[in-house]
Amino acid sequence: MPLFLLGGALVLGGCNAPTFGAFRGATVQGKDEFKLWVGMVIAGIIVAIIVWALIFWSIVRYRRRRSDEIPRQFHSSLLLEIVYTAVPIVIVGFIFYFTVVTENEVDAVSTHPAETIHAVAYRWGWRFIYQDGNGRSQGVIVQTGAEPALLAQSPNSPLYPRLVLPDHSTVRIVLTSPDVVHELYVPAFNFGRNALPGHPNVFDFTTTTTGIFQGHCAEYCGLYHAEMLFSVKVEAASQFQQWLTAQQSSQAQSGAAS
Amino acid sequence: MTLLAERPSPLSHPEEPEHGHEPSGVLNWLTSTDHKVIGKSYTITSLVFFCLAGVMAVVIRTQLASPDGTIVSQHTYNELFTMHGSLMLYLFAGPFAFGGLANYIVPLQVGAPDMAFPRLNALSYWLYLTGGLTMIAGFLTVGGAADFGWVAYAPLSNAVNSPGAGPDMWIVALVLTGFSAIFTGVNIVATIFYLRAPGLTMFRLPIFTWNMLVTAILILVAFPVLTAALILLWCDRHLGAHIFTTTGGGVPVLWQNLFWFFGHPEVYILALPYFGMVTDVLATFSRKPVFGYRGMIFATISIGALSTAVWAHHMFTTGVVLLPFFSLMSYLIAVPTGIKFFNWIGTMWRGSLHFTTAMLFAVGFLIVFLFGGVTGVLLAAPPVDFATHNTYFVVAHFHEVLFGSAVFGGFAGLYYWYPKMTGRMLRERLGQASFWFMFIGFWVTFLPQYLLGLHGMPRRIAEYAASEGWTGLNRVSSVGAYLLFISVAIMVVNFYISWRRPIVASGNPWDGQTLEWAAASPPVHHNFTWLPPVRSERPVWDFNHPEHTTQQHRQSDHATDGLVGVATTGFTDTGEESE
Amino acid sequence: MKVESHLLLFMASFGAVIALIYWFFSYDDGGTAMLTAFALLGLLPGGYYFWWSRRMAPRPEDRPEAKQSDGAGVVGAFPGSSIWPFVLGLGAAMTALALVFGFWSAIFGLTLAVSAVIGVIVESRRGGAY
Fold first, then answer.
1. Residues of B in contact with A20 (CB under 8 A)
2. Could you tell me if B143 lies within 8 Å of chain A, comparing CB atoms?
3. What is the rounded average pLDDT for all residues in chain B?
4. Which residue, A10, B256, B338, C111, is most buried by CB atoms nearer than 10 A?
């Protein structure tokens, strides 16, 4: 019964489940998404196998043997039709319930994020501005234009525009665009969100894993769309604070120098 | 001259229909208002656009076969994927169904002499052709063709970000083909409502005709919105209207709302006709009636209605749409689609399945579309969509449903009705070879793309970093694209052979069930010389197999009505207009 | 005519219900306007057909028991070959291309389109060009 398996997969959580090709998620939100993904894929595979089996049975078993054979001309079965209308409706109801639960978790925005970062996606690069708890800019801007050489680099390269996040904390991202529609997409976080001109999008990342992750612009934005890359570095909170302080002092120096 | 078409009547005397004054050759092509000529022109034109867009796809796949693709420049690549999508969706998948096959087959399936408005029908073809040529001609402009994707998201598509004549020609092309689609939609609705044969009640129409009716209604819902949005976009580009830009207080997301309010019904405009073709093909080659005929119709109507309320599931990642509403509506579409699947299986169940090329393509459609449908349900969950939207997962999903319906379903229909349209048979061996190349090539192309999407490869990128590890899967996908190319090439050879060395087709080569098989192949001018009595949804089957009908109680009608109906008649030439 | 009208009225009522629900959940003008227009699109012809279906006798194509001979006679007037749709299409395309190339294109286009419309009218009154 697909529903039980779906429920079972959701209860068990993602740890032991097969990934079906997807990322397990490096954030709390990403892990929630992954659980829903696994549950839905299992339900989908079961449905697909049943229907495929019926199709294959029909084409193998009922192949025409004699050119003049005419099968019995039955044309409907009310009971059967009611069953295969009702069962999908029930399945859809279950899936919808789990979807709404997951969606609310993924979209929930904390009232007291550890950091608030203004992310600006523009043609063709990224700017990350860190704010303090009072909403004042901490003056830290991480920005790099699109480098034609970026595609030849790995995300570890310092050439990449880098979004640095503290581990095990909730970070709020306020995403905007000054020109066209972009999308901040971090595959390892199982998350993408459009950067819309004129409408800031707000969402949270609750990090769980340190490391460097590849990020892309996923919404087609013109000529150099393919090169609009960035990376996300999640590091321990203490290291993050050191990095932030270092950035602040270097920014202050360059500000004073100019 | 104006011809007064009369119903073939048992009372009138057999008489050769007069059509000696009809022009031939190019002049016939230019001036004909016959739905059969227009339908054929539409079919051929749309297949030419299909081949062009297919060549673009091959170039795209070749570019992506290596990370630092150097086959074309990024700018050219952007033009290519834009035009590939635009040609396939606007100029092939839709027009091939509602302009080509439906134009030819629907009047035949309802027992009509022509479409309700023949001159409007011709106009619709000319708007389609000029629109299509305008779109292609974008490549000849200085800045190149449109390069903002087939969805043309504002503000990328405004005059600042996409200057030049190419984008404007793209807009004009869609306005023209949009009107062409609207006219065809009106024509199909009017034909089905007003020109049915006696006894052919709505609940006896073949499923293909029913699906075309719902498709035509969806065209009338969707295309005016697109045309209006395009005019607004043009005003933005040239009159400084600032409707879709933030600078003047406009709203960029409004474009997406307008576009997808067209775009989602459009997806079903591209799918429902092919569902209908597959249904007819499965029934004919199983020698059985459509299982759950009424359920099938109600499923089609439900899909049509629901498709108007799901548009924002293309916009989940914008963060400004009502997620649960659109998610639920999208899930609900799976229910009628599931009903269709079980009805298709029920149609084959305990049948006598004959695997002609058409039947192979129809079964191929079932297998392929099921997978596309299941991944569609996954994408209807906003959290899953956040992770996969704008990646190759979505690319693979919509190719699976659109290629699955328009190409597998469409070629099932084409192979099925080719004898009716040309009076010639296609070679079975070549057809089956082309099917297997296509079926295998299809999975080889698109299964890796699902994985690429899950590994985070965004769509519409001309190059990717070698460090991503996407190269192997991309190579496999490109090989699949070449297999698809070979499949289509075999099909073209098949058409060529049937043209040069024809095998003549009889009026009813497949033991078909519906009215089009009562006409000659190809049908005479104004289509029918006789009509069988209509007592169920498959009058020709009932007539040919009176002992195997689903209802056995009307034998007398055959004697009194049908057989006398062999008498032919009558297209009276008149010098005056009649009402 | 009954089934036809019911189909369109069903589409209309679905659009109306969805428009209401959508409005109260989203307060989005754009989507609600389009859904309302969808409802009206079904209501106008659907209502008209419904009104007629109650006043007219069922046509042969509405009667399950109708024989082919019941529909004998003239189905309708179908125009023969005509060059005017081609001319009109060309004119419309050239007019539309004025959006790209400027006003001069519309002059040619409108000339063609107007002559095509006149051509069609004259042709219909005469009963055919050939």
1. 454
2. no
3. 88
4. B256
Q: Which residue among B245, B251, B317 sits closest to A193, beta carbon to beta carbon? A: B317
Does this complex have an ipTM over 0.90? yes
Is residue A44 within 8 A of residue B378, CB to CB? The reply is: yes
Min Cα separation B389/chain A (Å): 7
What does the domain layout of chain B look like in residue ranges? 31-564
Domain boundaries, chain A: 2-107, 115-257
What CATH number was assigned to the domain covering residues A2-107?
Answer: 1.10.287
Question: Would the CA dihedral through B438, B444, B445, B451 be positive or negative?
Answer: positive
CA-based nearest residue to B305, from C14, A175, C84: C14
Structure tokens at B185: 């939609």
Alpha carbon of A135: minimum distance to chain B alpha carbons (Å): 22
Asked whether the beta carbons of residue B3 and residue C31 sit closer than 8 angstroms, the reply is no
Beta strand C73-78 pairing with A201-206? unpaired
What's the predicted TM-score (pTM) here? 0.91
User: Which candidate, B474, B442, B443, places its Cα nearest to that of B457?
Assistant: B474
Structurally, what CATH architecture does the domain formed by B31-564 represent?
A: Up-down Bundle (1.20)
- For the record, the structure tokens of B456 come out as 């985070």
Distance, in Å, from the CA atom of B103 to the CA atom of B116, rounded to the nearest integer, reads 11
Least confident of B124-128, B149-153, B365-369, B554-558: B554-558
A141: phi then psi, degrees, rounded to nearest 5? -120, 120
Residue to substitute from B11, B26, B31, B330, interface C, most C β-carbons within 10 A: B31
Spatial separation of the C-alpha atoms in residues B90 and B222, rounded to whole Å: 13
> For B315-361, how does the pLDDT look when each residue is reduced to its tens digit (9 = 90+)?
999 988 888 899 999 999 999 999 999 999 999 999 999 999 999 99
Q: Measured between CB atoms, which of B148, B292, B381 is closest to A76?
A: B292
Strands (DSSP E) along C40-99, which ranges? 73-78
Q: Is any Cβ of chain A less than 8 angstroms from the Cβ of B571?
A: no
pLDDT in tens, B534-562: 988 899 999 999 888 876 444 434 433 43
Q: What is the CATH code of the structural domain delimited by A115-257?
A: 2.60.40.420
Q: Are B487 and B441 in contact (CB under 8 A)?
A: yes
Neighbours of B120 (CB within 10 A): 17
Match 């050219």 to its residue by tokens. Answer: B76
CA distance B332 to chain A (A): 7
Query: Is residue B443 pLDDT above 90, yes or no?
Result: yes
Q: What residue type is assigned to position C91 of the chain?
A: G
Contact B378 A48 (CB under 8 A): no
pLDDT at B530: 86
What does residue A168 show for φ and ψ, rounded to 5 degrees? 50, 45
Q: Which chains touch B (3 or more CB pairs under 8 A)?
A: A, C
Q: Which tops the pLDDT comparison, B322 or B381?
A: B381
Tell me the C-alpha to C-alpha distance, in Å, between residue B349 and each of A71, A174, B287, B291, B362.
10, 56, 11, 9, 15
Amino acid at B334: A
Please, which residues have CB within 8 angstroms of residue B548's CB and are 6 or more apart in sequence? A70, A73, B541
Burial of B519 (0-12, 13-18, 19+ CB in 10 A): buried
